[in-house]
Write a structure and sequence with these properties.
Elements: H1 3-8, H2 11-27, H3 35-38, H4 49-77, H5 86-100, H6 110-122, H7 138-147, H8 158-171, H9 176-201, H10 207-218, H11 221-229, H12 233-248, H13 252-260, H14 269-282, H15 288-320, H16 329-333, H17 335-354, H18 359-371, H19 380-389, H20 394-405, H21 411-415, H22 420-441, H23 445-452
Helix pairs in contact: 2-4, 2-5, 5-9, 5-10, 5-11, 6-7, 6-8, 6-9, 8-9, 9-10, 9-11, 9-12, 12-13, 13-15, 14-15, 17-18, 18-19, 18-20, 19-20, 20-22
């Protein structure tokens, strides 16, 4: 691969660096009303109305520019990719995360919640229960400011709470801002390490295909942005890729067992375990019974360890949570039509898998997005494996594109409220790749037959 080819991947970090400069210039004209938000340890654009929408537009433009640059670079580099070029992807991803980390604002408050949960656990309080008003602390009070009152109880696994507790214990002497930066840095390290593990998992593939798949995951701009915000999905994916390695080297039970334990970090691990079970079943992998046994044992142990502490949080969410679909197919078409489309996509996926076609995984990912009331951008990392499994099949491309379009889900939060026409437009943009996949499949009989022939 030539030096010029290597530089082509630099479009991704350069897009984030340019976006950071544009965002900083935008903040120079910040209205006085958002001064309290800008004074927080990590400013989060929340209910900034029209001014906030302009700031989000910079992120949307950055993400789409980075995605376009990535696609062009992979097309140019792919045919000449070598077996060691995936290391370049990890380096470029680290540069992109560093550039994203220089942005003066973020669009999600989740990292504040992580630090609050760690602080509660460190002080002997239950992070899964509602926090009494009498309980204070720098991280707890900072999270309350972000949520304008009580922040949601923890819904993550006890392993993540233990990690958050350790992070707060190590970093709290440096202050809230430094602790939040530490959480974000740790997420970046986990993501880059996950790229290296994914490359190892794909080692048996031809270099060009392996390089393309690693780029599609490791340089996905929305995944990079959410990792830079500090979202804990990076830790989940690191655990999933780490679990895949022993499974590929003969330790099928150990790898499957470890993957089954992934809900100890986050509940989305159940979806990854289900995909592994379907993969073993549909493609009749060697030792599939051992894989099923490992997954079942790991998932059962995770349930035993997760459900008791999670019970208060689930009860609180059931009693006080509200169902509010936004920027989704549910928000666009309504609950019933969205669930019907999700069911059709799921049936399509299962049928593909029955016929041993890897595009079935992408259809299952599409079904998940169709069923979700709020497809947040930080879901992208754990949806990407389903897209990668489908390769160049239209469903895989559509699912990958949907992760890019999910960046518009920040819109309701940054604006504070949306008029119905703007909400419909945002939902249509977010859902466009999914609806395209459905329309492509439901086209004329000749087109449908061609689609069924895809891998």
């Amino acid at each position: 691969m030539s030096v010029r080819s290597r530089l082509a991947l630099g479009a991704v970090p350069l897009a984030f660096a340019a976006g950071s400069l544009a965002e900083r210039a935008w903040l120079l004209r910040a209205p006085h009303g958002i001064a309290p938000d800008l004074a927080q340890p990590l400013p989060v654009a929340t209910a900034w109305h029209g001014y906030g929408i302009a700031g989000l537009a910079i992120l949307v433009a950055t993400v789409f520019a980075a995605a376009a640059g990535l696609v062009a670079a992979v097309r140019a580099i792919g045919p000449d990719a070598g077996p060691r070029d995936a290391a370049l992807v990890a380096i470029v991803a680290a540069a992109a995360l560093a550039a994203a980390g220089t942005w003066p604002v973020v669009f999600s408050s989740d990292v504040y919640a992580y630090a609050a949960y760690g602080s509660l656990a460190l002080a002997g309080h239950d992070p899964y229960a509602a926090v009494p008003a009498s309980v204070h602390g720098p991280f707890i009070d900072a999270a309350r400011i972000q949520w304008s009152g009580p922040f949601p109880p923890c819904v993550y696994g006890p392993l993540f709470v233990a990690l958050a507790r350790t992070g707060v214990a190590l970093l709290q002497p440096a202050g809230v801002a430094a602790t939040l930066a530490g959480f974000r840095f740790a997420a970046g390290i986990a993501f880059v390490a996950g790229i290296a593990l994914l490359d190892a998992v794909l080692r048996g593939l031809p270099p060009a295909r392996r390089f393309g798949l690693v780029c599609a995951y490791g340089l996905n701009p929305v995944a990079l942005w959410t990792v830079a915000e500090g979202h804990n999905d990076a830790f989940l994916m690191l655990a999933a890729f780490a679990a895949a390695l022993p499974a590929l080297r003969g330790g099928r039970f150990a790898g499957a067992f470890a993957l089954g334990l992934s809900p100890l970090l986050k509940g989305a691990g159940l979806g990854l375990a289900a995909l592994a079970a379907l993969d073993a079943s549909a493609f009749r992998r060697p030792g599939r019974r051992t894989t099923w046994a490992g997954l079942a044992a790991g998932t059962a142990l995770a349930a035993v360890l997760c459900l008791p502490p999670l019970r208060p949080a689930l009860a609180t969410l059931g009693a006080h949570g509200r169902y509010a679909p936004s920027v989704s197919v549910q928000g666009l078409l309504g609950l019933a039509p969205a669930l019907v489309l999700a069911a059709l996509a799921a049936l399509c996926g299962l049928d593909r898998l029955r016929r041993r076609r890897p595009a079935g995984f992408a259809w299952l990912g599409i079904a998940a997005l169709l069923a979700l009331p709020n497809p947040y951008p930080w879901y992208a990392p754990w949806l990407l494996p389903a897209a990668l499994a489908a390769g160049a099949a239209p469903a895989g491309i559509a699912l990958w594109a949907a992760t890019i379009c999910s960046v518009v889900r920040y819109l309701p939060d940054v604006a504070g409220s949306l008029d119905p026409s703007t909400a419909r437009l945002a939902a249509l943009l977010a859902a466009a790749p999914l609806l395209w996949a459905l329309l492509e499949f439901a086209g004329p009989a000749s087109a449908r037959k061609k689609a069924l022939a895809q891998p």
